[in-house]
Amino acid sequence: MLERAENVCVLEAPFQWDDVGSWLSLPRLNGSDAQGNTTDGLFAGVDTQGCIVRTSDDHLVATLGLRNLIIVHTPDATLVADASQSERIKQLLDLLTERQLQQYL
Fold it and tell me: Residue 69, class by beta-carbon neighbours within 10 Å (0-12 exposed, 13-18 middle, 19+ buried)?
């Protein structure tokens, strides 16, 4: 439809674009530490590599000997997932809906 529109203006935008469609896009956006971990919040890891950890500044997520996990802590739920399974998150969302646990989405 846009290709037929009249009075359209295109501007060059001076910012990077990333289609944030999964947890795996966070390392591209936020970077990683020397062990390949991307963290947001209070985190301490020993022998932990390639993990994405998101928590708050008042809740510590501590890990030991983990590889390639996604760990997301919120005030009412915690997600722990193998990063290679991240595309299956919709199945988990469907299960929560089926069990009438939508308040945790």
Answer: buried
At 70 the three-state DSSP class reads strand
Mean pLDDT (whole number) for 75-104: 95
The SS3 assignment for 45 reads: strand
Whole-angstrom Cα distance, residue 37 to residue 69? 9
> Is 15 within a domain?
no
Burial (Cβ within 10 Å: 0-12, 13-18, ≥19) of residue 1 = exposed
The domain of 40 spans 35-105
| Sequence letter at residue 97 | T
Count how many domains the chain has: 1
pLDDT digits (tens, 9 = 90+) for 47-83: 999 999 999 999 999 999 999 999 999 999 999 999 9
State pTM to two decimals.
0.79
